[in-house]
Amino acid sequence: MSDSSNGENQTDEEFYILRLFVSGTSPNSVRAINNLKIICENHLKGRHELEIIDIHQQPLLVRNEDVTAVPMLIKKSPLPKRRLVGDMSEKDKVLKGLGLV
Amino acid sequence: MAKNTKIPKIPRTPKLAKTPTGISGLDEITFGGLPTGRPTLVCGTAGCGKTLFSLEFIIRGAMDYNEPGVFMAFEEKAHELATNVASLGFDLRTLEEQKLIKLDYVHIDKSEIAETGEYNLDGLFIRLGYAIDSIGAKRVVLDTIENLFSGLSNQGILRAEIRRLFQWLKEKGVTAVITGERDGPSLTRQGLEEYVSDCVILLDHRVIDQISTRRLRVVKYRGSLHGTNEYPFLIDEDGISVLPVTSLNLDKPVSTQRISSGIRSLDTMLTEGGFYKGSSVLVSGTAGTGKTSVAASFVNAACERKEKCLFFAFEESPQQIIRNMKSIGMDLQKHLDKGMLQFYASRPTLYGLEMHLVAIHKAIRKFKPKIVVLDPITNLITVGSVSEVKSMLVRLIDFFQSEQITVMFTALSLNTIVNEQTDEGVSSLVDAWILIRDIESNGERNKGLYIMKSRGMPHSNQVREFVISENGLDLVDVYLGPEGVLTGSARMQQMLQEETGAVLHTHALSRKDREIIRKRTMLEAKIESLRSEFESAEEELNKVYVEEDIKKAVMEENRKKMTELRKGNARDILPTKKNRK
């Protein structure tokens, strides 16, 4: 589920690496995936990489990434690293958290 | 020690399974440990030892009971924890490599996290579940889960999730310890006690008169008996030790074996050679009366008998005691070198009374002595009230009795009224009480030793003078004369005087004797001469009588003859002669 486009690195248009940890197909997780996809489509089109990880499948990664609450979105790049928890329904907060406002 | 006596409940009901913590003393208080498969809340204020408590629970479980454990830290990083417990002699890294312990550090930083809607703590569950399954953990610690509240703001979700977490832990069947920070009147800041209701342990750290004491209390323990008191505990290089208040049941074994006090004349006073083994002896006296010397000589004698001794010095350093005792002919150093004697010196103000008690317990359990000396107990009063000291000593004596350890306390009494009880009121608890008292007269101070009491044996009721010389300690009979009790030089003087008197007396006697003999011989001579005089007089008298008789007879004869002759009757002469024949 990655959507990437290389090359055109403008000054204010950085490339985003995102990781979303979800818990199977729980309602929260499904909502989070959908909400995030819409946000990415609208604001980060062509300049992001989104990895969706099911915590049940990769418990070691859960530990290494220090995940506690799910769904959790980790913005690995650009810095600063940020974490967003919740079903991403509050769009303003998500945008703020990703530094897109 | 507390006995593992459980009140029998309804028959055939399975008893609550318990998981031993391995923390010394705690398992006695809880009669076996924490409830198996259930969460236990350990709460207390900052710095009271919650984290250490929980870490020790995990480490002891892994090392002593072969129960792997997961430690989930919300406060300290894994390597910080490892460093912290390394000072206690635990090697977390190795235990981790051996898959006996798993550390997981959960970090939640509010500045890094934004909440964008509904969420749950599945991530935490997955991590914990994975950690438990990967090593087959039986024990779990969450330290301190309340930190979640500082990182995440949705209290409703958090509370629901924590409740779910505890339920989940129960289903998993792991014995869990959850720590919580105490805040005000409630046990934990977030009211965790609402969720963890099986067992709650409260740790406390109190400072009274600038001396801190840690205490532990089992607030509740569902389905089990538990000690309800506040128990002092100690954190030292061996981890946590809780001191169970020993049950004051009076069913201790007793011994009739006697052990020497190290002072021969004192043993004589006690008849049959000393104190009972396993008894408690109090030596009290005013300052400088030689209490420590009595104690040291007791220890010295025990060491010579190859019995291990532990000397708790609350006043002097071991070196000081050794030097001082050398001056009265006791070499404690050689016992120290042989390992028969051990000193445990600490200033009373170093820590609280309860701490001392724990420390004494620990030292005794480690060294396993037969004889223990506490010198002096009165110094402990500086760190506690009279009643506290007394209750401590009660417990201590109880402990010594159960361990069959003979103990000698020394106590400084501040005044010299004989009937005065010691400040700590322990005199009623001890089996033997020896009082050394100053006797001041003629411008000098001397020491008088009494046996105030000695249970279960006839003992001398006399006051002896207690003499300390370079040859050791000795008791001398005091002089009881018309002038009262004399000691010291007055006694010596009196003795000399008596000696002189005796010499003079014997001299006078012999002179008188001789005179009598002389008189006797004189009189006897006199009697002899009188007797011979009498004999001669008697003889004289006899002679007179005989002569008189002869004279009479002759005269008679002559008269008859004359008559015959006058009558001329010759024939009558012959028959007369015949008749006389």
From TrEMBL, chain A:
Coiled coil, from the record: none
GO biological process: rhythmic process
Matching InterPro entries: KaiB-like, KaiB_domain, Thioredoxin-like_sf
KaiB domain ranges (all copies): 19-100
A Pfam family it matches: KaiB
UniProt-recorded name of the protein: Circadian clock protein KaiB
TrEMBL record, chain B:
Stretches assigned to coiled coil: 520-547
EC number(s) given by UniProt: 2.7.11.1
Residue ranges of domain KaiC in the record: 17-256, 257-489
Compositional bias annotation for Basic and acidic residues: 561-570
Entries under PROSITE patterns matching the protein: KAIC (PS51146)
Primary enzyme class: transferase
Gene3D superfamilies: P-loop containing nucleotide triphosphate hydrolases
Entry protein name: non-specific serine/threonine protein kinase
